[in-house]
Amino acid sequence: MTRPSIPKGTRDFTPEEMSRRNYIFDTIRSVFRLYGFQQIETPAMENLSTLLGKYGEEGDKLLFKILNSGDWLSSLSSDDMSYLTSNSASTLISEKGLRYDLTVPFARFVVQNRDKIQFPFRRYQIQPVWRADRPQKGRYREFYQCDVDVVGTDSLLCETELIQIVEEVYRRLGIRVCLHLNNRKILAGIAEILGEAERLTDITVAIDKLDKIGSEGVNQELLAKGLSEDTVNRLQPILNLQGDNGEKLGQLAYILKDSETGMKGIEETKEVLRLCKSAGVKLDIMLDISLARGLNYYTGAIFEVKALDVEMGSITGGGRYDNLTGIFGMPGVSGVGISFGADRIYDVLNQLNLYPEHSSEQTQLLFAHFGEAEREYCLTIANALRSKGINTEVYPDICKIKKQMNYADQKHIPFVAIVGSDEISSGTVMLKNMLTGEQQAVQSDSIAEIITL
Amino acid sequence: MTRPSIPKGTRDFTPEEMSRRNYIFDTIRSVFRLYGFQQIETPAMENLSTLLGKYGEEGDKLLFKILNSGDWLSSLSSDDMSYLTSNSASTLISEKGLRYDLTVPFARFVVQNRDKIQFPFRRYQIQPVWRADRPQKGRYREFYQCDVDVVGTDSLLCETELIQIVEEVYRRLGIRVCLHLNNRKILAGIAEILGEAERLTDITVAIDKLDKIGSEGVNQELLAKGLSEDTVNRLQPILNLQGDNGEKLGQLAYILKDSETGMKGIEETKEVLRLCKSAGVKLDIMLDISLARGLNYYTGAIFEVKALDVEMGSITGGGRYDNLTGIFGMPGVSGVGISFGADRIYDVLNQLNLYPEHSSEQTQLLFAHFGEAEREYCLTIANALRSKGINTEVYPDICKIKKQMNYADQKHIPFVAIVGSDEISSGTVMLKNMLTGEQQAVQSDSIAEIITL
Questions:
Q1: Is B168:B371 a contact under the CB 8 Å cutoff?
Q2: In chain B, which residues have their Cβ closer than 8 Å to the Cβ of A84?
Q3: Model-level pTM greater than 0.90?
């Protein structure tokens, strides 16, 4: 019989991996809570009507669709078959899909539960999402997202708080990062003063590649897309902004002075930076006008966070959207949010070897014993230790001490209490520190003290 | 536009519900860890070959199947259509399904990862499962299971530890429970001494209904199934066992004296009860020979836990299985486990009103302010409080105090720090206790002390 396997692009998480993942999730969650964000969960399955058309044509193809229960086949008459495509036939035999991200379900949640929600609504959500992407290194078909959003206010204090959250999460994790900041209105302003407001997408898609292909490459692409040489020339000072954030904003204010939208974007960015200063943010924030991400629904600030000491794409990103709930019939609800990429953070922590040595999930003490009477003796002491909050195991089988020690070793249990008949008579255990190899006879009521030192 | 909705049988969880659910999960998880259990996670999607045939014919129908990506339609030629049923056609266009429980994925995990695992393997797993059941009150198509299992040992200490875990979880939650205990070998022994070993399933299915239909009803059912009157008569003393666990086991030992299997079941049960006593278990444990649950794979102890103060089915259940991994080609791995039913525990806690008043997830303090300068003043104080671990919000918008107070009220935030120009000049805040209505001027560096009292 061949070993069973799991679908490609999915993963099992072993105890060791889970303990590292929990460390990341717990850190993120505790910072979210510190800022008054509250958790929600939405179902894994959404109606396809909720999901379809929200992620572009490519996204629609990447949705995992659930086959209807019961007699789905009768919805496909043989007549149908001749002119149906897999795509069009899907909607006949499937009405549910797995969520593709947490943003659309969140928008759906807000609209559906608007009467129960207190606005401004501060929510976080940590759940898996599924995409039928071609699996490849670092890209999975099931992965967790950690999203945090405020909706129902356009206060720029929210942008500031998200930046504070980024700073605090990465401070706690020990990862040095830089936050790239842009504003959709600045991008719109640039297109406007170039006289190409209609081609905002072409322009930003090209600019977005600046750090990969350089300004020469960007120019080539824009010319290829049909922009005039004159227009491309006028873009150059923008691509080559120099100096710190204040200096760049100064130059931009001059360049965009005739664009109301552009000037608004500059004002918003200045205000976010000012509020960050007031709030004592020390994080490295860099104005990056090449940053576009998900341009389609962002309307204000755009964020992206990169680790400084590891080559890795964005590990956190997000922005402000003014009309996310509009697609579900509730217009005019402005919101801003960011998403932490748990898998990439996991890889960064692994590469930098930044995981804490001990985890609260680990067994701290194993009782190893020479026989039945000894095992019995362990039970009461083990209970007393557990009531002090110490994770304790009693080896379940009666077997050689060597096997029991080996188990402790493999499981990285830091202390073993060995019990033979001598220990029973003296009310002690032989306590072995598995790291140093030292062992000493210890009164059973002193064990807790020693191992929690 | 009609409001968006979610698939029937699924649920959104609001912040208030999540905080209650997290309370349950955190309690269960912390007890699991205390006994050295470690978390794993498996993918939501499993290959259908892993799932099919594991839950009976009915179970196969209740699996949610994922439509293959890409051109699935070409797998269904028009020729096929004429003789295919929905069931047989499913396997042509779907090769993945959503997990139906945590037990089969766990068995698959153990076999697949056998080289990475240290046996005896103590794992817990808290994840949702999906079943295409007809939705009804209290039955959902997506719900969480909390499973804890030890595999790779047949030591009865494991049964004992699971009973200790049950005791500790419900002690922490404040729910009074009774644990029903049986053993599959006792049931097999009963069928054997009745001369009906082959009809173990019929007999236990009938006995299982004892507390619903009474012994008269059980007899009727057995006669209807074709058992002789004589056989049914010989079953009576077993159905009417009286006394405490020791007395019942004494009577059973007499009745089952000619069945080796039955006597083994009695020995195992006695040993579990003896170990429980040694381990100081005070839980109400009742030998219940009518308990059968999932007879198909249990081979030893069978557990079920019921709340004493609420009418509710089983809130926890499980048992020992000697060959769970056999279906995946790894025979001879004995294990024992239990599963906590989070949804029912949630309902019990609601009915008994047993949730703690304050949750660590809640915002403890809101800053309300009269304008921009005041809001700015709040930022620094808010940071200082957060660095002390206090969940703090600053109201993001500049708006009427009444609106801000209303927000705090609706969100059950216990303290509000009101800031006007007077407070800025004196370095204070006006701290209002939202429960008592009292308010006092407080130096900003004394806020933490007061609200954590």
A1: no
A2: 73
A3: yes
Distance from CA of B313 to the nearest CA of A (A): 25
Consecutive 10-residue averages of pLDDT for chain A (453 residues): 89 95 97 97 97 89 92 75 78 93 96 94 97 88 97 97 98 98 96 91 87 89 91 88 95 96 98 97 96 81 96 93 91 95 94 86 95 96 96 97 97 96 96 96 96 87
Beta-carbon separation of A38 and B361 below 8 A = yes
Q: Inter-chain contact A6–B42, Cβ cutoff 8 Å?
A: yes
Cα distance between residue B207 and residue B199, in whole Å: 12
The ipTM assigned to this model is 0.93
CA A149 to chain B, closest CA, distance in angstroms equals 13
- Residue in chain B lying closest to A119 (CA): B407
pLDDT at B25: 97
Task: Verify whether the Cβ–Cβ distance A69 to B14 is below 8 Å.
Answer: no
Q: Of A34, A84, A131, which to mutate for an interface test with B (greatest number of B Cβ within 10 Å)?
A: A34
Q: How far is CA A123 from CA A137, A276, A310, A338, in A?
A: 31, 21, 30, 11
Nearest CB to B329; choose among A1, A11, A113: A1
Q: Cβ of A41 and B18 within 8 Å? A: yes
- A397·B153 Cβ contact <8 A: yes
Q: How far apart are CA A293 and CA A321, in angstroms?
A: 12
Q: What is the pLDDT of residues B209-235, one digit of tens each?
A: 888 888 899 999 999 988 999 999 988
Contact B124, B147 (CB under 8 A): yes
For residue B362, the chain A residue with the least C-alpha distance is A36
Answer whether A156's CB lies under 8 Å from A272's CB: yes
Closest approach of B146 to chain A, Cα-based (Å):
15
- Three-state DSSP state, B111: helix
Q: How close does chain A come to B139, measured CA to CA in Å?
A: 15
Q: Which of A72, A112, A123 sits opposite B5 (nearest CB)?
A: A112
* Among B26, B337, B173, B336, residue whose Cα is nearest residue A360: B26
Mutant choice from B6, B112, B415 vs A, greatest count of A C-beta within 10 A: B6
DSSP state of B412: T
- Calculate how close chain A gets to B290, using CA atoms only, in Å: 29
Cis peptide before A120 (omega within 30 of 0): yes
* Three-class SS of chain A: CCCCCCCCCCCCECHHHHHHHHHHHHHHHHHHHHCCCEECECCCEEEHHHHCCCCHHHHHHCCCEECCCCCHHHHCCHHHHHHCCHHHHHHHHCCEEECCCCHHHHHHHHHHCCCCCCCCEEEEEEEEEECCCCCECCECCEEEEEEEEEECCCCCHHHHHHHHHHHHHHHHHCCCEEEEEEEHHHHHHHHHHCCCHHHHHHHHHHHCCHHHHHHHHHHHHHHHCCCCHHHHHHHHHHHCCCCCHHHHHHHHHHHCCCCHHHHHHHHHHHHHHHHHHHCCCCCEEEECCCCCCCCCCCCCEEEEEEECCCCCCCCEEEEEECCHHHHHCCCCCCEEEEEEEHHHHHHHHHHHCCCCCCCCCCCCEEEEECCHHHHHHHHHHHHHHHHCCCCEEECCCCCCHHHHHHHHHHCCCCEEEEECHHHHHHCEEEEEECCCCCEEEEEHHHHHHHHCC
User: Per this entry, what is the length of chain B?
Assistant: 453
* Shortest distance, CA B198 to any CA of chain A (angstroms): 29
Strands (E), B101-141: 121-130
Give the closest of A36, A47, A81 to B391, CB-based.
A36
Q: Which of A1, A5, A11, A12 to mutate to test the interface with B (most CBs of B within 10 A)?
A: A12
